[in-house]
């Protein structure tokens, strides 16, 4: 984030940080694949309830999914603004992205408390453990993203973010979109296909 | 220098190969190289096939290596070697050759996998094998027979073992009778075989299962058909009643009022299922899942302090400890349960 | 290397050469610890019914021996070379992310200390010393490792230690991928990369894809033990076999992580001392890539006794046999390199040749494992212990020692004694064959593995004794090596830039290199820049001093600070003090923020 504005020449023409980040995303794909595969392997094998159809609230979760998708849009707009030097809108869009991320997290908290209230905890059954660990890991990733976005926003407020270091916003965007895509997969696999 | 080295290496290989392959210097009661069943024979044939291919490849590779080292070692005044970067034809050849050899390994492998997948005819003798920390439970469902640690099977008849575990993952392995299969809680694995030689064979647990994994041994006794029938009849009968006024009768009384009854079954006397069934414990050749010969001295030490002999054993010392006289009486009783 | 001296310069270093040395010495230390654990094991097993140590202690010994050797000795020893040598081989001044590099090292050190602390801290857990070290095997099969059957903190130390080490490896993985792909000198195309660099690149890709899987497996285990989940418990409908699948999905690629760097070393050492290019460079590279890819398709060959069914068993048998092809082909390429050469028998060459000879044996026993019916007699016995020690000791350890003797002059500026090196080699070679060859027979004669003792009736007492003698021979050889190291530091002959006549870039600069590595970044026109070949002249080495001063980045405290957050988080699990997680996370985040906003020119 603090590296010189001058982009070094690289053998493959891609910025080092960007390349590292794509490698990181590749690694994260394996992480989430393992979690999702475990969910699928144990699907339908819970011995006691509550079961998914008893408890998952598709309309509610569709709204949070939409929220996350919109946050990705905000992210795209934030990057575009920073790249063209429009820091007023850059700050607005960065903050909005973080805000929508927080809304998503709030929705998760609400959803999880509702489940616990209805008798589904992490140790109730296989559905409980696979669901909470999978969505909890994803939620932790969203939380890190929100922290990251707010940090960028504060840097922008301090006048330390601009088109010269737009790369950092681009990489933040990569992370955010990845987290969003993972959610789409989770939403499909866990909520939509029962 | 390098030839000198090659020789000790070859010597080591040949000497130990001879030792094992000929099975000499035995007996080796748990050897995988002396098959006593069709299952064990099938895997032995396959292993022998693979072994000879491997030995051949070994000879070729190591010879080439040694020859290269000797022939092309540095000599003064030698010109810079020709910088060969590769040789496509040779590289193709030495890629295809191993591939071809692997076909000769793969085809019999797949055939043997299917032939030894645990399927057995409907009239096979069925035994349920249940692994516990650290002993083996054997149940013969069609006979109504329950015993522990010593498995009896008839010669030449199809036998099917259905293997599972009551706690952690173990593995049932009696090498002369075939390969191992894991005993996994919540799953049933099957081994099927026909024993080809009468005898008394050893095995042991082959999946690390905690403190006394090394002590979880077993015996398999292959009887003639009639011998097996006699054994089963005896096992199905009730326990021997000790004669009145004997030490054994006093032992039975001690047993009936001790903590033993919470863990062990003696038909008509106690219903415990945490430890091995003792109804005919006197008839077994070993104690404590194959750890010791079944004699009074070992039985007494075992009762006195099992965890000292088998770390982690759930068979705690009695509190208060039994007196030596009481232990001797118990031993007399248990040894009478033939 | 930078001239700064003192503890602070080491704690804050971001110089890949220093970090390489840190990895080297730390790994060597852990190698010695793992070796001592092995000696205890071998003394216990030298005769039937041995009683040197209790069953519980023995189970900790073999667990820690395996875990230490794999994660704290072999992988970090390879990392020592990744760190020191890769930037030199590709003509770079450092790695892509020097502070991330330092972070990887500190996390490794802290993880290794956490794991080994378990030997000493028993009293803190109301147990004796030597009581709470991990004892579930290096592969920690569920459900033995669940709270019900492993109530103490032993398994918690294990899974926390491994998760910590995983973070170290992942960070290094991202670093080296970017370094190798993006920091190459002008003219160094991918097919001009030294083979060691290529194998390292493949290894890093395997690391970043395999470690997430074991992380998930360990997290599931941690949650089962801490929060009552049921990932591996049958009572709730789960299965312990899930652990095995996840573990071996990581575990098989892990063995390629362990062997590929050593194969890379051998592919450098043989050509240098045969004075001939590597035979079939493209094939060696492609087979390395193939092994990395195919390594994902064979994991259940570790599970042939689990009862996956004949179709699954056959499929994995087939893929496991297939992977023998790219692996075996390399052997022929190495022999082909020696053939027609002018072979100088330096110590490094001895070790490289030893690798080829011993890895062949280990590979062949591996083929017998690939056949499930045969494997059912071999798996979980000393036969498989023989197999993996031939590939990991005869392979990786010998290969890495080849690297040590080869690159020691470059890294330290001094030569190791060649006569002492030969003594080291022969003692180690004889020792390892005596230690591990009998194990093939011990296994075939029916002795399972992971047993603290065995019955005299098995008839394997003599072979076990021979094996123990071999282990002590290995120990003796290591003492010779340590003496060689000490002597080299004291009286070692100063090393020139290029003691061996090497072809690759690291030999074009001083031993040890200055902080900036290359006074002028060379332009590369061939795979063997420093050799004259039919197509081009040998390159001119960079000048002794740079034309203009070269500024290298200074050090930083923040990688170390951030790294310290991780063991604090781990402690929360061991002490059941939840608040420690937040303290540890705060330290980590604080360290990362200071790191991120620190001015640091690369």
Give a verbal description of the structure:
- The complex is a heterotrimer of chains A (194), B (338) and C (602).
- With 194 residues, chain A is mostly helical.
- Helix content of chain A is 75%, strand content 0%.
- Chain B has 3 domains: 114 residues, Helix Hairpins (Orthogonal Bundle); 112 residues, Immunoglobulin-like (Sandwich), CATH 2.60.40; 89 residues, Cupredoxins -  blue copper proteins (Immunoglobulin-like).
- Chain C has 602 residues and is an all-alpha fold.
- The mean pLDDT of chain C is 96.
- The longest helix of chain C is centred in the N-terminal third of the chain and has 36 residues.
- In chain C, helix 2 packs antiparallel against helix 3, helix 3 runs parallel beside helix 5 and helix 4 runs antiparallel to helix 5.
- Chain C has 2 domains: 520 residues, Cytochrome c oxidase-like, subunit I domain (Cytochrome C Oxidase, Chain A), CATH 1.20.210; 39 residues, no CATH class.
- Chains B and C meet through helix 1, helix 2 and helix 3 of B and helix 3, helix 8, helix 9, helix 10 and helix 11 of C.
Annotation keywords:
heterotrimer; A: 194 residues; mainly alpha; Four Helix Bundle (Hemerythrin (Met), subunit A); 0% strand; elongated; disordered N terminus; B: 338 residues; alpha+beta; Helix Hairpins; Immunoglobulin-like; 3 domains; five-stranded mixed sheet; three-stranded mixed sheet
């Amino acid at each position: 984030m603090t590296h010189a504005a001058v982009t070094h020449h690289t053998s493959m023409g891609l910025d080092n940080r960007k390349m590292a980040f794509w490698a990181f995303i590749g690694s994260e794909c394996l992480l989430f694949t393992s979690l999702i595969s475990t969910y699928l392997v144990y699907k339908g094998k819970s011995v006691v309830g509550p079961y998914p159809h008893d408890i998952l609230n598709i309309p509610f979760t569709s709204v949070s999914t939409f929220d996350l998708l919109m946050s990705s849009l905000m992210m795209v707009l934030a990057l575009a603004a920073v790249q063209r030097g429009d820091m007023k809108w850059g700050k607005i869009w960065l903050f909005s992205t973080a805000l929508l991320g927080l809304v998503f997290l709030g929705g998760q908290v609400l959803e999880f408390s509702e489940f616990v209230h209805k008798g589904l905890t992490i140790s109730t059954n296989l559905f409980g453990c696979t669901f909470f660990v999978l969505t909890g890991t994803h939620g932790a990733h969203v939380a890190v993203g929100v922290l990251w976005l707010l940090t960028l926003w504060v840097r922008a407020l301090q006048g330390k973010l601009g088109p010269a270091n737009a790369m950092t916003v681009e990489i933040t965007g990569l992370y955010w979109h990845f987290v969003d895509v993972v959610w789409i997969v989770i939403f499909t696999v866990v909520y939509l296909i029962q | 220098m390098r030839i000198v080295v090659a020789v000790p290496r070859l010597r080591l290989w040949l000497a130990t190969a001879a030792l094992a392959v000929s099975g000499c210097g035995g007996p080796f009661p748990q050897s995988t190289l002396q098959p006593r069943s069709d299952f064990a024979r099938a895997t032995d044939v396959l292993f022998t096939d693979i072994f000879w291919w491997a030995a051949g490849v070994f000879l070729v590779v190591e010879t080439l290596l040694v020859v290269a080292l000797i022939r092309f070692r540095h000599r003064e005044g030698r010109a810079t070697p020709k910088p060969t970067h590769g040789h496509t034809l040779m590289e193709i050849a030495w890629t295809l050759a191993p591939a071809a050899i692997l076909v000769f390994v793969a085809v019999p492998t797949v055939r043997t996998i299917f032939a030894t997948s645990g399927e057995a005819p409907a009239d096979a003798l069925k035994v349920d094998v249940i692994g516990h920390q650290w002993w083996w439970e054997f149940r013969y469902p069609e006979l109504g027979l329950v015993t522990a640690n010593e498995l009896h099977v008839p010669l030449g008849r199809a036998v099917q073992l259905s293997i599972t575990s009551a706690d952690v993952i173990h593995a049932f392995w009696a090498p002369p009778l075939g390969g191992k299969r894991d005993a996994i809680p919540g799953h049933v694995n099957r081994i099927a075989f026909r024993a080809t030689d009468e005898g008394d064979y050893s095995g042991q647990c082959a999946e690390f299962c905690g403190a006394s994994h090394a002590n979880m041994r077993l015996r398999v006794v292959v009887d003639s058909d009639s011998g097996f029938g006699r054994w089963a009849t005896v096992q199905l009968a009730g326990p021997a009643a000790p004669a009145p006024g004997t030490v054994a009768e006093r032992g039975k009384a001690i047993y009936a009022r001790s903590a033993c009854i919470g863990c062990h079954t003696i038909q008509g006397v106690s219903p415990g299922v945490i430890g091995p069934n003792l109804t005919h414990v006197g008839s077994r050749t070993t104690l404590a899942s194959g750890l010791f010969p079944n004699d009074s001295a070992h039985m007494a030490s075992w009762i006195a302090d099992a965890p000292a002999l088998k770390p982690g054993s759930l068979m705690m010392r009695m509190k208060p400890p039994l007196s030596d006289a009481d232990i001797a009486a118990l031993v007399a009783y248990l040894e009478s349960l033939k | 290397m930078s001239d700064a001296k003192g503890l602070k310069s080491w704690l804050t270093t971001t110089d890949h050469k220093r970090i390489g040395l840190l990895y080297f010495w730390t790994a060597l230390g852990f190698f010695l610890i793992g070796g001592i654990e092995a000696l205890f094991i071998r003394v216990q097993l030298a005769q039937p019914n041995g009683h040197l140590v209790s069953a519980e202690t023995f189970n900790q010994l073999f667990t820690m021996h395996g875990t230490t050797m794999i994660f704290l000795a072999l992988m970090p020893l390879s990392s020592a070379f990744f760190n020191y040598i890769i930037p030199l081989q590709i003509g770079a001044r450092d790695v892509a992310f020097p502070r991330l590099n330092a972070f990887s090292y500190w996390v490794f050190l802290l993880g290794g200390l956490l794991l080994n602390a378990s030997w000493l801290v028993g009293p803190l857990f109301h147990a004796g010393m030597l009581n709470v070290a991990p004892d579930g095997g290096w592969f920690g099969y569920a459900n033995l490792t669940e709270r019900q059957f492993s109530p103490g903190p032993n398994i918690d130390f294990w899974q926390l230690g491994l998760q910590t080490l995983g973070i170290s490896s992942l960070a290094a993985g991202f670093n080296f991928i970017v370094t190798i792909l993006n920091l190459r000198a002008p003219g160094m195309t991918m097919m001009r990369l030294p083979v060691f660099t290529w194998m390292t690149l493949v290894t890093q890709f395997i690391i970043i894809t395999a470690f997430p899987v074991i992380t998930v497996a360990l997290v599931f285990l941690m949650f089962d033990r801490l929060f009552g989940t049921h990932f591996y418990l049958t009572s709730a409908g789960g299965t312990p076999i899930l652990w095995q699948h996840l573990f071996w999905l990581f575990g098989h690629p892990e063995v390629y992580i362990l062997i590929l760097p050593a194969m890379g070393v051998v592919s450098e050492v043989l050509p240098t001392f045969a004075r001939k290019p590597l035979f079939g460079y493209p094939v060696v590279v492609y087979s390395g890539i193939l092994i990395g890819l195919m390594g994902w398709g064979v994991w259940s060959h570790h599970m042939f006794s689990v009862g996956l069914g004949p179709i699954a068993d056959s499929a994995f048998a087939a893929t496991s046999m297939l992977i023998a092809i790219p692996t075996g082909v390399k052997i022929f390429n190495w022999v082909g390199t020696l053939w027609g050469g002018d072979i100088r028998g330096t110590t490094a060459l001895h070790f490289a040749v030893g690798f080829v000879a011993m890895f062949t044996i280990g590979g062949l026993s591996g083929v017998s494992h690939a056949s499930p019916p045969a494997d059912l007699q071999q798996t979980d016995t000393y036969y498989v212990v023989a197999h993996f020690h031939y590939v990991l000791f005869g392979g990786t350890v010998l290969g890495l020692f080849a690297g040590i003797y080869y690159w020691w002059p470059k890294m330290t500026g001094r030569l190791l004694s060649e006569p002492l090196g030969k003594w080291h080699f022969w003692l180690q070679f004889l020792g390892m064959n005596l230690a591990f060859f009998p194990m093939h027979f011990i296994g075939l004669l029916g002795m399972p593995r992971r047993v603290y003792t065995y019955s005299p009736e098995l008839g394997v007492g003599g072979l076990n004794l021979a094996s123990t003698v071999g282990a002590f021979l290995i120990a003796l050889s290591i003492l010779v090596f340590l003496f060689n190291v000490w002597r080299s530091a004291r009286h070692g002959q100063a090393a020139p830039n290029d003691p061996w006549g090497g072809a690759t870039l690291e030999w074009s600069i001083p031993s040890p290199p200055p902080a900036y590595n290359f006074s002028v970044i060379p332009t590369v026109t061939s795979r063997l820049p420093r050799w004259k070949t039919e197509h081009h002249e040998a390159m001119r080495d960079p000048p002794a001093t740079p034309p203009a001063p070269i500024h290298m980045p200074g050090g930083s405290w923040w990688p170390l600070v951030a790294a310290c957050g991780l063991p604090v988080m781990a402690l929360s699990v061991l002490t059941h003090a939840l608040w420690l997680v937040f303290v540890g996370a705060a330290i980590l985040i604080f360290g990362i923020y200071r790191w991120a906003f620190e001015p640091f020119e690369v």
